[in-house]
Amino acid sequence: QVHLVESGGGSVQAGGSLSLSCEASGDTDRITVMAWFRQAPGKEREYVAIITGPGDTYYADSVRGRSTISQDKAENALYLQMNSLKPEDTAMYYCAASSSRTYSVLDTRRYSFWGQGTQVTVSS
């Protein structure tokens, strides 16, 4: 089992920045890829950014160029730096981890472990 705990969400005005953190514990050696997803009210959960074990990164079109995902394997930590925030970035942000290689890294079914979420609210 892998346990994930997010932190760093909050309220910010449009154009501002936020940094999210995720601390992983448990069987972290099993993790093959980690990601940030988000879910706005009434919408499906969508991926925001993904980072694989070797460090390959993927970004959703909506955040590319404004966000940076990074990891510190020694600390079992995942980060998401978000800049130039927009009201449409408002959502609950979830840290996710996968210990399998089934499904694409872009597919939510790939991820077995999820944090409880941290709210990001961007006002105009």
Structural overview:
This protein has 124 residues and is an all-beta fold. Helices cover 0% and strands 52% of the residues. The protein has no helices and eleven strands. It has strands at residues 2-7, 10-13, 18-26, 33-39, 46-52, 57-59, 67-72, 77-82, 91-98, 113-114, 118-123. β4 and β5 form a beta hairpin. The radius of gyration is 13 Å and the shape is globular.
SSE blueprint:
Elements (H helix, E strand, L loop, with lengths): L1 E6 L2 E4 L4 E9 L6 E7 L6 E7 L4 E3 L7 E6 L4 E6 L8 E8 L14 E2 L3 E6 L1
Parallel strand pairs: 2-11
Antiparallel strand pairs: 1-3, 3-8, 4-5, 4-9, 5-6, 7-8, 9-10, 9-11
Helix content: under 10%
Work out the radius of gyration: 13 Å
Structural class: mainly beta
**What is the rounded distance between the termini?**
40 Å
Question: What is the strand tally?
Answer: 11
Quick structural summary:
The protein has 124 residues and is an all-beta fold. Helix content is 0%, strand content 52%.
Provide the descriptors you would attach to this structure in a database record:
seven-stranded mixed beta sheet, 124 residues, mainly beta, four-stranded antiparallel beta sheet
